[in-house]
Amino acid sequence: MTKATDTGHRPRPGESPPAKNGTSHGAAVSLSGVDIGFGSFVAVRDISLDIAAGEFLCLLGPSGCGKSTVLSSLAGFVPVRDGRLTVDHAPVTGPDPGRGMVFQSSEALFDWMSVQQNVAFGPRMRGRSRAEQKKVADEYLGLVGLRHCADRFPGQLSGGMRQRVQIARVLANEPSVVLMDEPFGALDAQTRQVMQEEMARIWRASGCTVVFVTHDIDEAIVLGDRIAVMTAGPAATIKAVYPVDLPRPRDDTAPEAIELRAALRRDIGEEVRKALREQGVDDPADVPGEGR
């Protein structure tokens, strides 16, 4: 039976973090009693979660529960109101190149720059030589399978290719933590499936810690080492954390995946119904949760 665990990471027997060249360069992330708010509005309350170095953690919850707000605080864009937020035991006080953010929209790319120039932008801003910039861009474009597109511009690429460029640009800064805010949400179903497979491969090659926000249950099962489920907002918190005890690449038709999907749908469904009741909807219809 699928069971939720506590918020700490407990590796399964024989499990080791993903690694590049045999060692993980991901950073441990810790949220302890974190409150985040805007004026009198409390977005999330008392969030506590420990994420191991090199882990792929999916943050799942109903729309509007504060998933992206948590990610923004991890990125250093939004300060916490209370509690402690650390990366490798150092408090998060603002943005840092060690924490890279991949947004849902590929419009974050610079349209007037070539693909290679986009990926080399971070190294360029850090004063790397032109030769070093080109070398880094070439390495990470190779990692995402787009070396042949180096001289193209974002407008000449498909949606999935633009997202891969955005991922390469983040990785070119060699972050220890990669934060991803529904990066495949705007893609069609077929492209999204391919990008999920690519993301799993890229993560294992990079060794980064990944915190991945999604509202798609199947996506979380395919990608995550663990899945943290949030309650409905406002003042949302962590409802449960599930380990994904499935080998990679994932078979989402395996009995364990089906069981986990049912548990997640139940949890999300409970939160959606609770939110509807709080909005004054009497006896909301059965809501099975969100999925693909």
Main attributes of the structure:
4-stranded antiparallel sheet, 6-stranded mixed sheet, Rossmann fold
What is the element layout, followed by pairings?
Elements: E1 29-38, E2 41-51, E3 56-60, H1 67-75, E4 82-87, E5 90-91, E6 99-102, H2 115-119, H3 121-125, H4 130-143, H5 159-171, E7 177-181, H6 189-206, E8 209-214, H7 217-223, E9 226-230, E10 238-243, H8 255-278
Helix pairs in contact: 4-5, 5-6
Account of the protein in words:
By secondary structure, the chain is of the alpha/beta class. Among the domains are: 53-79 and 177-279, Rossmann fold (3-Layer(aba) Sandwich), CATH 3.40.50; 110-175, no CATH class. It is built from 8 helices and 10 strands. It has helices at 67-75, 115-119, 121-125, 130-143, 159-171, 189-206, 217-223, 255-278, and strands at residues 29-38, 41-51, 56-60, 82-87, 90-91, 99-102, 177-181, 209-214, 226-230, 238-243. It has a 6-stranded mixed sheet with strand order 6-7-8-3-9-10, with helices on both faces. A 4-stranded antiparallel sheet has the order 2-1-4-5, with helices on one face. Strand 4 and strand 5 (90-91) form a beta hairpin. Helix 4 crosses helix 5 (159-171). The chain is globular, with a radius of gyration of 19 Å.
End-to-end Cα distance: 23 Å
- CATH architecture classification name of the domain at 53-79 and 177-279: 3-Layer(aba) Sandwich
How much helicity do the residues have? 25-40%
CATH class of the domain at 53-79 and 177-279: Alpha Beta
The major pleated sheet works out as:
6 strands, mixed
- What's the arrangement of strands in the largest beta sheet? 6-7-8-3-9-10
CATH fold node name of the domain at 53-79 and 177-279: Rossmann fold
Average per-residue pLDDT, rounded, comes to 87
Total count of helical runs of at least 4 residues: 8
Write down the overall geometry.
globular
Strand tally:
10
Give, in order, the helices and strands. EEEHEEEHHHHEHEHEEH
